[in-house]
Design brief:
Strand content: 5-15%
Structural class: alpha/beta
Number of strands: 7
Strand order of the largest sheet: 3-2-1-6-4-7-5
Largest sheet: 7 strands, parallel
Helix content: 25-40%
Mean pLDDT: 81
Oligomer: single chain
Order of helices and strands: EHEHHEHEEHEHEHHHH
């Protein structure tokens, strides 16, 4: 399935002050749930709905009927082949789940997640919220790739929420926090050569950039036979990806870490000695190994 790009915004788009995070439905099964989610979003001024491999394809007549007036959202839906494609342009992704996960990951309530999203978006970052399949929720790999988890304090004996209910809850919290209470934004000031100065806001790395860094690191660790014994490789690699996902990396951080991995690999192979062959390069000017290549 190829990605379907949403049309450009028009005057009917929600005002900038109530634009918010994207809602990403991972492999939704029922068109009715997609339509109900779109209606819930538009009730609270949200319009960026992304679908990952919807079971019954797109467009969907049941979704249109259930949306009941929220066609503005459905007309702008973007469809993606997989979760990485749907989240590639985000600096932060939040995974909604009712099940405990054996991961070291920050866990927010809906209100706490929205407060964090609001502060990030005030700094110019793009954020998305992941919602899982109706029957099984999100897979562990989806949660591993997220920056944080959102858990609703529901009845422990009946914790599962309907997909559209969960979207409605997050949309409501967004509207309440950003419109009624107008939380103030704050800035991160970092005085670093080649990066943001004091009082400036650094640009955060997107999920696609973090994924490239993780792949680069895994490639180097494979060459060093780090993943041993072999049967533990998937769990060890997932732990590394989880570590990178939960660290708020800037673009400069990602470039520097690419350089660190490259320097270690060159040293292991008997490459240039420290201080040689690197004129004009410092830790704030490392090149992404994929720079200049086309990415799928």
């Amino acid at each position: 399935m190829s990605d379907q790009t949403a049309p450009p915004s028009d005057p009917a788009d929600p005002p900038a002050e109530i634009r918010g995070p994207a809602m990403i439905l991972v492999e939704p099964q029922l068109g009715q749930n997609i339509g109900a989610a779109a209606r819930a979003m538009w009730n609270f001024g949200l319009a960026d709905l992304r679908l990952v491999a919807p079971r019954d394809g797109w467009p969907n007549e049941d979704a249109v009927a259930m949306a009941s007036g929220a066609s503005h959202v459905l007309e702008r839906v973007s469809v993606h082949a997989d979760r990485p494609a749907a989240t590639a342009d985000f600096q932060a992704v939040y995974a909604t789940t009712a099940r405990p996960r054996e991961l070291t990951k920050q866990v927010f309530t809906p209100a706490g997640a929205v407060a964090d999203i609001a502060s990030r978006m005030a700094r110019g970052e793009r954020c998305g919220i992941l919602f899982g399949r109706e029957r099984t929720g999100l897979e562990n790999e989806d949660v591993v790739a997220a920056d944080a988890i959102v858990a609703v304090p529901t009845n422990p004996d009946f914790a599962s929420l309907n997909l559209a209910q969960c979207v409605l809850l997050m949309s409501y919290e967004w509207r309440r926090a950003t419109v009624e209470h107008a939380e103030a934004a704050y800035e991160i000031g970092r005085g670093r050569r080649g990066g943001a100065g004091l009082g400036e806001t650094p640009e955060m790395a997107t999920h696609a950039e973090v994924a490239r860094l993780a792949a680069h690191l895994e490639q180097a660790l494979d060459a060093a036979n780090y993943f041993w014994p072999e049967h533990k490789r998937p769990a060890m690699a997932a732990s590394l990806r989880n570590l990178l996902a939960r660290a708020p990396l800037t673009n400069q951080d990602a470039r520097m870490l690419h350089g660190v991995v490259r320097a270690l690999a060159e040293g292991r192979k008997g490459g240039p000695a420290p201080g040689r062959g690197n004129e004009g390069r410092d830790q704030g000017q490392e090149q992404d190994p994929d720079q200049g290549r086309e990415h799928d």
